Amino acid sequence: MDDHDFGALTAVRLDAYSRADQSEILGDGADPFGVSETGLTWLPKEEHFGVRSAAGRLVAHAGLLRLPTAIGGSATEVIGVGGVAVAPDLRGRGLARTVLTAALDHARTLGPRHALLFCRPPLVALYERLGWRELTGDVHVEQPDGPVVMPLRTMWTPLGTGPEAAPWPEGEVRLLSFPM
To answer: SS3 breakdown of the chain: % helix, strand, coil, rounded to 5?
Structure first.
């Protein structure tokens, strides 16, 4: 088996996720997620899921973080999903679905009814194929100098299934922390 044998790859919970792990997936570029132009301050994720190739190389990642949020003026929590990465040479093989499925399966055990992520416009279609939906209104996030409108696209997915799948609540969305 080599790095490109994807017959039975599964995602696992990672004990830790470092800058070296990120570099293993995305390389050592200065802006691996293509979001430095936003000038935003981001939070690190607390829980991490990854996919390793048969050779042991980390080839995909997704991180989670519970976040305080206000929707329509009501306090709630969401699970923030971030740091989603698939090695460029291995994209198009279902690894994003694999790692996000594992992360969201875990997120469903944490209590909040929705997961939220931010992405660049070219990634919206990918997340839509994976069952995410785009929020169309402004989303405010905290930054060192106060709240700003998130310049990236905001996507959400329910964490319940079937009748447990809650629709996104109506009203203005404000992340009461830095984004994840």
So the answer is: 20, 35, 45
